[in-house]
Amino acid sequence: MTTAIPMLERARDLQDTLVAWRRDIHMHPELSFQELRTARLVADTLRDMGIEVETGVGKTGVVARIGEGRPAIGIRADMDALPLQELNDVPYKSLTPGVMHACGHDSHTAILLGVARLLNDMKDRPPGEIRLLFQPSEEDEDSDRKSGAVRMIEDGALEDLDAVIALHINSNIPAGQIRIATGPNSASVDSFNATIIGEGCHGAYPHQGIDPIFILAQVINAIHGIRARRINPVRPAVISIGAVHAGSANNVIPDEVTMNGTIRSYDDETREQLWKEIEQAFAVTRAFGGDYKLEIIKSYPSQYNDPTVAALIREIGVSMLGEDGLFPEEPGMGAEDFAYMTRKAPGAMFSLGAKYDDVNRPHHSPIFDVDESSFSIGAAILAESACRLLKSKA
Ligand SMILES: [Zn+2]
Ligand SMILES: [Zn+2]
Asked: 3-state class of 110 per DSSP?
């Protein structure tokens, strides 16, 4: 096995630049599909390196190519921020009120710029194309319910790729460690909006109407029975009801109840079963004389790490960080629109440990922050993985 250490040493020389890029982006966060300044920063920085750049891909995305021909390996970073007011008192605090990079996509963008530098400067880079995919809008979908990855794919950014890789920084894993899953890495995510329809009446005379709140209780029971009684116990799935709204007075039985929730699973078969089972659960309303309206909103599919690509990233991680550099694998039910990309080409995403301090700083919280010393590790692993994939796919 050739050692991956030289790439890590080269990445460490870039550490200050990586931090400067990240802080610049962090101070100027932009919401999903509005990443104009970020895209400009990315394009200008790449052009300064002498790399050819395509802008406006997938609306506000940027695609850059290093080398040409096959094999072709994609590396993806997302660029969008979240509608949150930053509460951290740091010199690089967000300058845009109500908008914050609270998921670490600023780090991803900076790290991928570092990867560009590392690969572009390489004299002995294996033949083939490295395609840098700076993607907009991972956190949200546009009015056609399409996220940044979908828009990039529609614009052809993923055509003829032999593999695609990415990282997600993680504020719960210590810096100096990575986590890489084999197989399922993130869940599919769908949501539902529903109305339970009854017939309002006086609270003293419930028999004169149809109480949708009573029916709601049966529906909630039926929904929570799906995971427990209808889904194969060894297949991960979860349905959570997030909101229920009904009524306005203590003595009035309302006409209807509205509710919504989230639906998550790993495999496509279970996902489709969940859609059907939820429909069945709402059909209970009819047994009680009521009715329902149900809309299931389909969003990101599950993301699957190709075992061969995952093994390669793991091997590189261990050679750079040692056996202690591997954080235990633990599947989660979060979602990632990188899933669309790994359905176009075999690929994998790993978590880059970057715990900031002893305070709990979860992703999507106003006190989210990361240990920037992880950046050079992330850049080195992505760059080295891309080189090894070029060789192995040749
Ligand atoms: Zn996020
Ligand atoms: Zn994210």
From this structure: helix
Locate all alpha helices (DSSP H) within the chain, ordered by sequence: 5-13, 15-27, 36-48, 105-120, 148-154, 212-225, 268-287, 307-321, 338-342, 375-393
In percent, the amount of the chain with pLDDT more than 90 equals 97
pLDDT of residue 330: 81
Report the C-alpha gap between 39 and 56 in whole angstroms.
Answer: 9
Helices 307-321 and 5-13: crossing angle in degrees, nearest 10, is 70
Q: Name the β-bridge partners of 134.
A: 62, 77
Secondary structure tally for the chain: helices H, strands E: 10, 15
CA of 232 to the centre of ligand 1 (A): 29
In whole angstroms, what is the distance from residue 25 CA to residue 30 CA?
A: 9
Distance CA(65)–CA(116), nearest Å, equals 9
Is 279 one of the annotated active-site residues of the chain?
Answer: no
What amino acid occupies position 110? A
* CA–CA separation, 160 and 210 (whole Å): 58
Catalytic residue flag (residue 159): no
Q: Which of 300, 304, 340, 384 is catalytic?
A: 300
- Residue 104 C-alpha to ligand 2 middle, in angstroms? 6
| pTM reported for the whole predicted model | 0.93
Sites in the chain below the pLDDT cut of 50? 1
Ligand 1 centroid to residue 95 C-alpha, Å = 20
**Backbone phi and psi for residue 348, each to the nearest 5 degrees, phi listed first:** -155, 150
